Amino acid sequence: MNKSILRLAVPNIISNITVPLLGMVDIALMGHLDSPVYLGAIGLGGVIFNVLYLSFGFLRMGTTGFTAQAFGRKDRSEIANGLYRSVIIALAIALLLISLQIPIGRFSFYLLDGSNEVKTLAAKYFYIRIFAAPATLSLYAIMGWFIGMQNTVAPMIIAISINLLNIIFNVFFVQFLGMDVDGVAYGTVVAQYGGLLLSVVLIRKNYKDCFGKIEKQLIFQIDQLKRFFRVNSDILIRSVFLILTLSFFTSRSAAISDENLAINSMILQYFFIFSYLMDGFAYAGEALVGRYIGESNRSALKSVVNKLMIWGISISVPFALVYFFFSHSLLQILTNNFELLVEARRFSLWMALIPITTFAAFVWDGIYVGATASKAMRNSMLIASLLVFLPVWFFTSKLNPIHGLWIAFHAFMLSRSLLMWLFSRKAIFQIES
C-alpha cells in the first residue's frame, strides 16, 4: 500500500515543484524590462486567471473521482465516456469564457486596483491569454482522468513539458522578438496547446484499448450528467469558499498595516509550498480511494486512509520543526528588509503550526474527491468558513487583530479536518465489502 501511495504521490510532487519555477521566470523577464509596470500587469492579469481557473478546478477533481471508481469497477465504457463528458463540458465552459471575455475583463479591472498604465498592459495580457482557456480547461479534465486511471507519471510529463514550453516561448517572445506582457501571454497560449497535444498522444499510445466507437447516448446519459453536475457544483462551492476565506485573510492583513500584509503574505508562501507537497498525497488518495470504492474493497479503503494519515503526520512534524527553528532564515529568502524580519519573529509559532494544522485537511480533500463525497466535503467547508473562521476572527481580533487572524486561520484548517473525519463514517466508509 505504501508503495502504491508513493508511486502516485511522488510524480505529482515533482509536477508541483515546477509551478513556482514558471512564475519566477515570468517575474524575472518582466523585472528586467525598463519599467515596473510590466511586473504589475503580469500580477494583475494573473489574479484574474487564478480566480477563474481555481473556480473550475472541479473539472479535474470530479473527473478523478468518477474515473477512479470506473477503473475499480473495470467499467471500460464509463472510463472512456467519462473523459469525453468532462472534456466536452470543459470546452463548453472555455468557449463561454471567450465569448464573454470583454464583460469579464471590464468587470475584473473595475474591481482591481492599479494605475491606468498597469491596467492597460494587464488588459493586453488578459485578452491574449484567454484564448488558452479551451486547452487549459481540457487539460484539467485530462489530468484528472489520468490520476483516476492510477497514472500520475503522464500528468507529471505533461506538466513539466508545459512549463518548459512556457519558459522557452516566453524567453523567445520577450528576449528575441522584443515583446513585453503580450510575449508572456502568447508563450502561455502556445504552451497550453502544446500540452494538450501531448496529452492526446499519451492517451492514444497508452489507452487505445479503452476507446472504441463513440456512443453519444452514453456520453450524454441523463443520470450520469446529473451526477456529474451535482458532484462538481458541490466542489465549486467548496472551492469558492476556500478562495473567499484566504482572500479575506489577506484583505484583513492589509487593513491592519502594510507591514502585516507583507509578513502574512510571506508566511502564506510557505503554506502554499507545504500544500504542493501534501497535494501529491492527496492526489494519491483520490486515485486509490476511488479505485477501492469502485472495487467495494472496504479493507483496502481503510488501509489507504490510515496510511495516508501516517504519511501526513510523518511529513508535517519535520516541516513544523524546520518552520519554527529556521523561520528567520526562510523569510530571508523572500526579503532582506531588516525591520520586516525583526517583526516577523513574533509569527514563528503561527508559521510552525501550518504543517500540523493543515496536513489532515489536504489528505481528507483527496479522500473525499476519490469517493465523490462532494456534499459532505462542501458542508465541512461551509461550516469551517462561516461558523468557525469568521466567529473566531471576530472575537480574537478584538483582543489582538494581528494574532487573531492566525488563530482564526488555524481554527479554520483544524475544523475542516475534524469535520471531514466526523463525516467520513457515513460519506466514505459505508460501502459493501
Structural class: mainly alpha
> How many angstroms separate the termini?
18 Å
Overall morphology: globular
**What's the main sheet like?**
none
Beta-strand residue percentage: under 5%
- Say how many strands there are: 0
Structure, explained:
This protein is mainly alpha-helical and 433 residues long. It folds into 2 domains: 1-220, no CATH class; 231-433, no CATH class. It has helices at residues 2-31, 37-55, 58-73, 76-99, 101-111, 116-129, 133-148, 153-176, 181-206, 216-219, 222-256, 258-294, 298-325, 327-332, 338-344, 348-370, 374-399, 401-427. The model has no long low-confidence stretch (mean pLDDT 88).
Short description:
This protein has helices at residues 2-31, 37-55, 58-73, 76-99, 101-111, 116-129, 133-148, 153-176, 181-206, 216-219, 222-256, 258-294, 298-325, 327-332, 338-344, 348-370, 374-399, 401-427.
Q: Features of this protein?
A:
2 domains; mainly alpha; 433 residues; globular
List the topology elements.
Elements: H1 2-31, H2 37-55, H3 58-73, H4 76-99, H5 101-111, H6 116-129, H7 133-148, H8 153-176, H9 181-206, H10 216-219, H11 222-256, H12 258-294, H13 298-325, H14 327-332, H15 338-344, H16 348-370, H17 374-399, H18 401-427
